[in-house]
Amino acid sequence: MPQRRNTLRQRIEARIARRHADAFLTREFLDLGGERQVVRALRELTQAGKLIRLGYGAYAHARISPIANQPMIAGGGFGPVCRQVLDKLNVSWEPATDERAYNEGRSTRVPMTPGVRLRNSRFSRKLRYKTMELTVER
Question: CA-CA distance, 89 to 114, in Å (whole number)?
């Protein structure tokens, strides 16, 4: 009996499991199938609670929260995952002004919203998770 091939969703899940990144772009999976099929498989994984959609073509690895029993961003949280997305999109960035002031000891106010300052880059996407949104300084 011939061996059955894995579905596109199973192949995407396997690739995500092999990688140690917390952020993924749609284009990373286009070699596995057509764009519509890949987007459909990613949507299914999002509905299953294995991925979290951050914005257009950007996803984060999810894990189930033991407290709320809901999917949440795995890894370092929303800010670091957004920075991984920016790195994968080849957007040059640096920490936001508030974060830099806190890290350099010029401020005692802890920045609550993740933000970045773009360096000579055109980036117009919105990256969101629940009530958080990445703030972009120009």
Answer: 18
- Where b means 16+ CB within 10 Å and e means fewer, 100-127 reads eebeeeeeeeebeebbbbeeeeebebeb
Pairing of strands 71-73, 128-129: unpaired
**Three-state secondary structure along the chain?**
CCCCCCCHHHHHHHHHHHCCCCEEEHHHHCCCCCHHHHHHHHHHHHHCCCEEEEECCEEEEEEECCCCCCEEECCCCHHHHHHHHHHHCCCCEEECHHHHHHHCCCCCCCCCCCEEEECCCCCCCCCEECCEECEEEC
- Tens digits of residue pLDDT in 5-57: 789 999 999 999 998 889 999 999 999 999 999 999 999 999 999 999 999 99
Q: For 68-79, what is each residue's pLDDT tens digit?
A: 889 999 878 899
Are 85 and 23 in contact by the 8 Å Cβ rule? The answer is: yes
Q: Are 101 and 62 in contact (CB under 8 A)?
A: no
